[in-house]
Amino acid sequence: xxxxxxxxxxxxxxxxxxxxASARAMGVAKSTLSRRLSRLERRLGQPLLRRQSNxxxxxxxxxxxxxxxQRMLDLNRESRLALDNLRERVRxxxxxxxxxxxxxxWFAHRIEDFLARFVEMELTLSTLTTPPQHDAGVSICxxxxxxxxxxxxxEQVGALTRGIxxxxxxxxxxxxxxxxxxxxxHAWVDMLGVLxxxxxxxxxxxxxxxxxxxxxxSRADQVVLQADAIVRGKGLGVLYDWTAERxxxxxxxxxxxxxHDWRLPAVPVSLAYPFGQLPRKTKCLxxxxxxxxxxxxxxx
Length: 300
Known about the structure:
This protein is α+β, with helices and mostly antiparallel strands. The chain has helices at 4-16, 19-26, 30-44, 60-85, 100-117, 168-174, 223-231, 241-250, 280-292, 295-298, and strands at 49-52, 55-58, 92-98, 121-127, 140-144, 153-160, 162-166, 189-191, 199-203, 208-211, 218-220, 237-240, 256-258, 262-263, 267-273.
């Protein structure tokens, strides 16, 4: 039995004659495409592609298999479309997964608006604190960060800038850091081990600084819990600027941004969903979410 994602990779590489170009077009890592091609070739028992100059061209087996491969993909697409066409209305149930960062502050409100527009849809919201995987039954997921070989199509829909924040009471008691080298002397409130590998900061004039991994006794798997601990003066913490700005609008003066002249790398916002032809209800929700992405995420 052939896997459709492997067949799709073979056809894409055949058309582009390049792993790199195919990876960009499909929104997945080059290494992921290479592994899927290798699995397909092992299953077939012979190579399908060979390198010629700087291009990938089909072998004799690849030429023979390409037509059958395309027909299998077309048949899959046509069968799904035929089933979709049996129901002209957008209706049915779907489970939507999201990182806690999005679920309370943005996702839930957008879902309410979506349900108001599509009255025959039923949505279940599920929070994820680990990256989504295809074998876990994820249909749609919004995730902060790059997603590797998760078995899902990954589309970057924005990026989030980050900063180091503290409460005024903490700064009054411990003083504000004036340079990243001062950060090691401070207490920290971590979010899911973000500090385990240290931090890389870059000054506005381009000077980089690598901060060593930080040991912290306080961690949270919910952004709101981390922000609450920072506000209570428990230490410094890395927060998404978008999150901090929303909180500051509701509660002015609770958070102070430290080291204004230093930047942390932005984090991509990833929208993940299965490969292949999607049900009408899934496509409809994806289209809605793409149009609802906050402007702040697209200008980071």
